[in-house]
Amino acid sequence: MKFSRMFIPTTKEAPKDATLPSHQYLVRGGFINQVGAGIYNFMPLGKIVLDKIRAIVKEEMDNAGANEVLMSFVTPLELWEESGRANVMGHELLKFKDRKNAGYVLSPTNEESVVDIVKNRVTSYKDLPLNLYHINTKFRDEARPRFGLMRGREFLMKDAYSFHATQEDLVREFNLMEETYKKVYSRLGLEFRVVEADSGAIGGSGSKEFMILANSGEDTIVVCDSCDYGANIEAAKRKELKKEKLETKQIEKVHTPNLKSIEEVTNFLQIDPYYSIKAVIKKAIFKNSVETVVFFVRGVDELEETKACNAVDAIDLEDATPEDLEKANLIAGFCGIIDFPKNIKVVFDKELIGENNIVCGANEEDYHLTGVDLTALDLEYKDLVVVKEGDTCACCGGKLTYTKGIEAGHIFQLGTKYSSAMNATFLDSNGKAQPFIMGCYGIGVSRLVAAVIEQNHDEKGCIWTKSTAPFMVDIIVSNSKKEEEAQAGEKIYNELKANGVEVLLDDRINARFGFKMGDFELIGFPYAVVIGKKLQEGLVEIIDRKTLEKVDVALEEVTSKLL
Ligand code: ATP
Ligand code: MG
Ligand code: MG
Ligand code: MG
To answer: Disulfide: which of 80, 118, 333, 346 matches 386 by Cβ 3.0-4.6 Å?
Structure first.
């Protein structure tokens, strides 16, 4: 491909709200542009990268025996009513009506659609197992879309759903998917950790997340320095708790009112009811002793948030310093923004946690915001004990440290949650109808475009890994007006192409050398071949984007050097 024929709208300016390198460089490098809040266009380079990631995901899923399908992006609300998720999903689920007043949703995930496909089509245990996947647009009306592709509202996900006759077979597939995911992230050239995770409101028991290690990651994970153990802090906390069960059992509940309505809760808290609906009150108990209360507040606008924060002496998440967040993580085990549920259940122990401190759960709606199964927070004290850095809890006895990760994939053992709700059954070997036992497996394909850059960049721009680079080599013709340089460029270009190397020829007549070089560094192709003054001696320069090292190479040897 010739640079002069490609649409690569690079710019010097980054969007004002772009704080992450991936957001800045992907926009500046002409990979993507923003259409609306959390909604992006992919420009030619961005589309190439997205397709490369998608192809690797597809290849590994196919190798694992999964079948690619394409489920509709728009799904009837009826299906969501059948599964019981129409109301549980909260505001992330975008619902709308057609001209006949029928309800629809933009799919944020596709459990309902896939159960509907399999229901009455797969009827016998003999047809199982089955794993169906698709790679398709998702829409989640995220409360705070941000960080470019990292947290979009419209994004691309690979989601797979498996169906089994037995729990053992589900576990086998779950393990196969874990191995498949590891192959995907390894092929993408990423450093990652598989961590034990909470299932969130998606449901089920076993669940693992795949975290791309990067300082900018929104998730805090605990990793062991001596083995592969990793967990998001919620799950690690639970594991630690098992050990502490005896100790925790000794705590006596002094007072446990079961507050069922918002009014009861707000009276109890003595705060403005309106804000209490929007407030999240996080209480932390650290190993039987009371620590700070962490409040996070979500209001409908900034002024309200500020007022609410003042009312309950809270930190607005947006204003929280890294230290605040760190503290919140250390204390509460996680931090997030949660609305009060409709049927809130508060467990309160005056003596233990003090007059003004409160522990509260939240509803299923918010699992997307926290990644935590908040319905499981029927709160018991033990749920709030956290693992400390430096603890040796959880695995081989090695030291645990906190690190940051980007959630790039999540696999779940769903069980029969959706098949039971939607009455999707098969006949087992005794001829008895049983609900399908299911697993589901997601990969954030468009989030991965950003994750690659979060892990691979410098102050000049992107540094693509070999498998994700839009082109492997950028041939920079220093002065395209010079006949010999232009010809040498064409020669190398044709040779590399003939040898199967993905190559871009920067043949722009009116762009100066410095400008072409700047684009190379910003866009981040793994190699550049610079054709300049040394051509008279039969030499060109190869630049390694990662190290920025330059070597002179004879014109005839360029191709063999780059193969
Ligand atoms: P998060 O905790 O970041 O909100 P999630 O737990 O809600 O993610 P899942 O329901 O597990 O997400 O979806 C599977 C994958 O889809 C995630 O692991 C992530 O890589 C990707 N994903 C989820 N939400 C978004 C988003 N808003 N933008 C881009 N990718 C996303
Ligand atoms: Mg989410
Ligand atoms: Mg999550
Ligand atoms: Mg998840």
So the answer is: 333
> What residues are neighbours of ligand 3 (ion), with CB under 5 Å?
371, 407
From residue 563, give the alpha-carbon distance in Å to each of 311, 497, 499, 524, 558: 64, 11, 8, 18, 9
Note whether 522 and 28 are within 8 A (CB).
yes
What is the phi/psi pair of residue 447, to 5°?
-60, -35
Give the C-alpha separation, 23 to 45, whole Å. Answer: 15
- Best probe residue, ligand 1, of 209, 410, 441 (max atoms within 8 Å of C-beta): 410
Q: What is the pLDDT of residues 275-290, one digit of tens each?
A: 322 333 333 222 222 2
Name the β-bridge partners of 153: none
Q: Do β-strands 294-297 and 279-282 pair in parallel, antiparallel, or remain unpaired?
A: antiparallel
- Ligand 1 near 151 CB (within 6 A): yes
CA distance 338 to 322: 19
Beta strands in 62-177, from DSSP E residues, in sequence order? 67-68, 74-76, 94-97, 103-106, 130-139, 154-164
Say if CB 22 and CB 150 are below 8 A apart: yes
* Cβ of residue 108 lying under 6 Å from some atom of ligand 1: no
> Per residue in 504-562, pLDDT tens?
999 999 999 999 999 999 999 999 999 999 999 999 999 999 999 999 999 999 999 99
Beta partners for residue 232, in sequence order? 221
For residue 290, give the 3-state DSSP assignment: strand
Dist. CA 166–CA 439, nearest whole Å: 11
Nearest ligand to the CA of 155 is: 1
Contact 472, 48 (CB under 8 A): no
> Residue 412 is which amino acid?
F
The CA distance from 156 to 289, in Å, is: 44
In this structure, the number of other CB atoms found within 10 A of the CB of residue 243 comes to 12
Report how far Cα 335 is from the mean position of its chain's Cα atoms. 17
Nearest residue (CA) to ligand 1, atom 12: 368
Please name the residue whose Cα sits nearest to atom 31 of ligand 1: 444
Q: ipTM more than 0.90?
A: yes
